[in-house]
Amino acid sequence: MMAQRREAVMGSGSTDVFEKGDIHWKKVNVDSSIANSSSPPKPLLIFTPTLPGAYPVIFFCHGFCVRNNFYSELLAHIVSHGFILVAPQLFCNGLPMFGPCEVKLAGKVVDWLAKGLQPLLPENVEANLEKLVLSGHSKGGKTAFAVALGYAKTTLKFSALIGIDPVAGFSKHCQTLPRILTRVPRSFNLDMPVAVIGTGLGPIKGKCWAPPCAPEGANHREFFDECKPPRAHFVASDFGHMDMLDDDTEGVVGTVLSKCLCRNGRGPRDLMRRTVGGLVVAFLRAHLNGQWKDFEAVLGDPSHAPTKLDHVVYLPAPS
User: Fold this and answer.
1) In 184-240, which residue ranges form alpha helices assigned H by DSSP?
2) Which pLDDT tens digit goes with each residue over 23-43?
3) Is 72 a catalytic residue?
4) Is 138 a catalytic residue?
5) For the chain, domain boundaries
6) Which of 72, 135, 159, 165 is the catalytic position?
7) What's the CATH fold of domain 2-314?
């Protein structure tokens, strides 16, 4: 099956997914407003191509206490390869939300996309909501999984799901609400391809005597284990839970979360951002557009990635 897919895209050209793409783009800040019915339920950032065309849409949820603009470099990498990214700020009065409230609000923002997104895009740029992807980092990864699993009712359908070092709770025995991990392999009732990108240093205690930011029993390994094929799993062994964020995260909270509490890798963060961004692009090209060349190249030789990938698994859907 893999050989047949490879022949189908041979000669179509290839872009190095681990480098910035050549599609021009811009970032749009959108505020929420009770007085304006067309406003989104929460403030958000939109990363959109300016080159005319129809593009898949990725809905991205930030991690615990993290601001959506801390992911600007990562999201810029992805949009430059031909995607529209919508990243809401799921805070309430400037403070993080917890549990089911955040999941339900994420679902409301997803529903807003149907009528609210297109008017905010450049002329002749179309949001292809027939190819809508859920994604998120850390607690936001769990939020994305929870929305996909139906914990938030939405009118739109999803084509793929990507968890970036997702975290379900404080430990194996202490999940945050909603408790979505069942401890049963392949138990997630999902009918879409899933990719899980983990970190090798996430389960290690952070600085300042902090507990692990992605503890064993509640991290990427459990999320992958409970997914059904088609599913992919990548682990960047030399990097940590916050290493896909921007180099500069404004404010005391951003600095503490990004560079103190969680264990960081020894290399430049740019390597991790390029790795995560490239894996997202390659996975979605394959599963949304049938362009398998880049994805198969990484599966065949993980050294193509800028960082060491010590765990690369892809289980296709049963034929």
Assistant:
1) 220-225
2) 999 999 999 875 576 899 999
3) no
4) yes
5) 2-314
6) 165
7) Rossmann fold (3.40.50)
